[in-house]
Design a protein that fits this description.
The relative contact order is 0.15. The chain is an alpha+beta fold. α4 packs across α6, α4 crosses α15 and α13 runs antiparallel to α14. β9 and β10 form a beta hairpin. Strands 2, 6, 7, 8, 9, 10, 13, 16, 17 and 18 form a 10-stranded mixed beta sheet that branches. A 3-stranded antiparallel beta sheet has the order 3-4-5, covered by helices on one side. It is built from 15 helices and 19 strands. The chain is elongated.
Length: 564
């Protein structure tokens, strides 16, 4: 039987609420330090415990972890110690037990982050925990996800609905949504959407963009179905393998990134662009070889996974101890990619997943300590207003150029084609000259029929031959002129067809670009709008409760320090 440790009366909801109100009523500090403090926020950390699996039930394993959702705490009992020893207790921003629903986890953890991304912030949600504790289930849902009901979907597919429900219920704002999907396998970055998903990509540093992956595929998506297809394609390319603890163990860290760019007319009558980036991170689980019994490639993979998770832990420790002047983000590819999410300008939520069985006590305790440190990391989120390198601005400029070119071509057309007239005149001249030659031949025959002497006949024939030669030469020239005019007409027709084809291609290109930028010209979808409003209110209530809980916890810690 697990007993919970006594709690201070200061941790009650009413006391926390009073403190929260007093803090909100405190005078505003105008110093730079005060402004910096108000702009910072801690990494949000929640825990989720999976139910006992079939093997653990058959082995009659005991449950050593007890989840208390009401105050977002976890009690962990050591199965090797005396039952009179009180369990270790940890408090977080949220706690979800084995019977928790996917929709509740998303509503309280994923929804606020995605809302912030739609406003122009960067956001990161990542799952951390021992292998086989439900990280992929929390982030994606049961596989194959396309055959699962909506209430079984994880954070990643739920974020898809959230984003496109917002698009369909918003008027007066343009949206551009694109997605990328990568994995870090044995410290190599791979593009899961690329032509060769096994090809190695390089990390680069840019003064404006920060750390980025060179040549990573980004796909513009216009609906839930399209982005869901992108995720399915990438998921099939991800590296998985079987171990003794998980038949489909992720052998790599994966990051599914959604970039949402919005454009809206400001009060200055100028378009203003915001760009929010959502990183959805599914970390490979930490492993002990004695439990997974991995060997060969599986052992090599586990070694790399544990090294990168260790580097992540070192970064978290350096960020929260307050003494370190250096944070070792460069120790692994994972920490470099998560640099902005830990102590940077991103709103971040960590979901720590736990296994409840007693034989996983050490790993569960390690995860809880890991998560407990992470909640003290402070970030400074900021809205990405009018960034230079947005695809939205590039597309808008390209659309304007195409429209101008199409308009110029439309104004330049309509002139008469002169080649057909030249050909007609040449053909008419050819007919006239042919008729003249025929008359000369007929006249020659008539002279011969009438009969003349030999001398006169010779002169007449010579005259007729000379006239005939001149007429034939003129006819040949007329025929050549008509042929040239006909060739010119064909060339002009070919040029006209090529111009029309080019105009059609430009029009198709324009339509394709315009289709990628999503906007509503009609009334918004009221059903989606009402649903989103309800979810926003629920998220606000959960956030208020979370702040009160964290303030209560801080008061507990202050009281304990005074007593010591």
């Amino acid at each position: 039987m697990i007993r919970r440790p006594p709690r201070s009366t200061l941790s009650s909801s009413s006391a926390a609420s009073d403190v929260y109100k007093r803090q909100r009523q405190m005078p505003t500090n105008s110093t730079a330090a005060g402004r910096g403090a108000r702009n910072t926020e801690c990494v949000k950390v929640v825990v989720r415990c999976r139910p006992m699996n079939g093997q653990e039930k058959r082995d009659e394993r005991m449950c050593c972890a007890e989840i208390h959702p009401e105050d977002a705490s976890v009690s962990l009992s050591n199965p090797k110690c005396d039952e009179n020893e009180p369990p270790k207790s940890f408090t977080f921003d949220g706690a979800y037990g084995p019977d928790s629903k996917q929709s509740d986890v998303y509503a309280e953890t994923g929804f606020p982050i995605v809302e912030s991304v739609l406003e122009g912030y960067n956001g990161t949600i990542f799952a951390y925990g021992q292998t086989g504790t439900g990280k992929s289930h929390t982030m994606q849902g049961p596989q194959p996800i396309e055959s699962q009901p909506r209430d079984q979907h994880g954070i990643i597919p739920n974020s898809f609905y959230h984003i496109f429900d917002t698009v369909s219920s918003t008027v007066g704002k343009d949206f551009l949504v694109r997605a990328s999907y990568l994995e870090i396998y044995n410290e190599e970055i791979r593009d899961l959407l690329g032509k060769d998903p096994k090809a190695k990509l390089d990390l680069k540093q840019h003064p404006d963009k920060g750390v980025f992956v060179k040549d990573l595929t980004n796909i513009v998506v216009k609906s839930v179905a399209e982005i869901d297809h992108v995720m399915m394609v990438g998921h099939k390319n991800r590296s998985v393998g079987a171990t003794m603890m998980n038949h489909e163990s992720s052998r790599s860290h994966s990051i599914f990134t959604i970039t949402v760019e919005t454009c809206q007319m400001g009060v200055d009558k100028k378009p203003h662009i915001r760009a929010g980036k959502l990183n959805l991170v599914d970390l490979a689980g930490s492993e002990r070889q004695t439990k997974t019994q991995s060997s060969g490639d599986r052992l090599k993979e586990a070694t790399k996974i544990n090294l990168s998770l260790s580097a992540l832990g070192n970064c978290i420790s350096a960020l929260v101890d307050g003494k370190s002047s250096h944070t070792p983000f460069r120790d692994s590819k994972l920490t470099r990619l998560l640099e902005d999410s830990l102590g940077g300008n991103t709103k971040t939520c960590m979901i720590a997943t736990l296994g409840p069985a007693d034989y996983n006590y050490d790993e569960t305790l390690s995860t809880l300590r890991y998560a407990n440190r992470a909640k003290n990391i402070k970030n400074k989120p900021k809205i990405n207003e009018d960034p230079k390198d947005t695809m939205m601005r590039e597309m808008q400029e390209q659309i304007e150029r195409l429209r101008a070119q199409i308009e110029r071509k439309a104004k330049g057309g309509g002139a008469p084609v002169p080649a057909s007239e030249r050909r007609a005149r040449g053909e008419k001249q050819t007919v006239v000259q042919t008729e003249k030659i025929q008359k000369v031949v007929t006249k020659t025959k008539e002279v011969i029929v009438d009969g003349v002497d030999a001398e006169e006949m010779k002169a007449i024939v010579a005259e007729m031959d000379e006239e005939k030669k001149k007429l034939m030469l003129e006819a040949a020239r007329a025929e050549a002129s008509a042929r040239a005019a006909k060739d010119a007409e064909q060339a002009e027709l070919d040029a006209l067809q090529a111009e029309e084809q080019e105009a059609a291609q430009m029009q198709a290109q324009l339509q394709a670009l315009e289709a990628k930028i999503l906007h509503n010209d009609t009334l918004p979808d009221q059903t989606n709008a009402m649903k989103l409003d309800l979810q926003r209110k629920q998220a606000e209530m959960a956030e208020r409760k979370r702040r009160e809980s964290r303030l209560a916890q801080e008061l507990d810690e202050q009281e304990e320090e005074k007593m010591m």
